[in-house]
């Protein structure tokens, strides 16, 4: 039985019964995708991959998932810069411990926005200095969505509605219905 058959064997019951528990999803990922980060030694020099995805943020993970579902017998290498430390990942899932990993060089790239001079809203003839601020960017599986203290945000209604207006096949993306 090849790896694609294993994936099919695992995923079909999940889809049929809608038993998408964390354990089942993790099992699927572990059997389908080879994920390496900067601390692991990549010693499979002769391994051949159909796709190499650099970055296991939300886009990279979704792309890997879509490839698993749509490409038979696929072999994927998913690379991530962050740590393999499961304990750190578990800490990031608790909003009350968010500050302990925030700005950590292990899980955050440490970006900071530039200082900006701008006209004063009180006296337009004067300038005020708007100090730069931290701009967290995750380097863990899940990317920035993992280091955001579990904050839920939705995009602007106009963005969703403009996607839906591109044609009938996109109508499911309108703001009021895309989460159904």
UniProtKB/TrEMBL annotation:
It comes from Funneliformis mosseae (Endomycorrhizal fungus). It holds the Pfam family GMC_oxred_N. Keywords: FAD, Flavoprotein. Its cofactor is FAD. SUPFAM superfamilies: FAD/NAD(P)-binding domain. Belongs to the GMC oxidoreductase family. The keyword Flavoprotein applies. This is 457_t:CDS:1. GO terms for molecular function: flavin adenine dinucleotide binding; oxidoreductase activity, acting on CH-OH group of donors. InterPro entries: FAD/NAD-bd_sf, GMC_OxRdtase, GMC_OxRdtase_N. Residues 49-178 form the Glucose-methanol-choline oxidoreductase N-terminal domain.
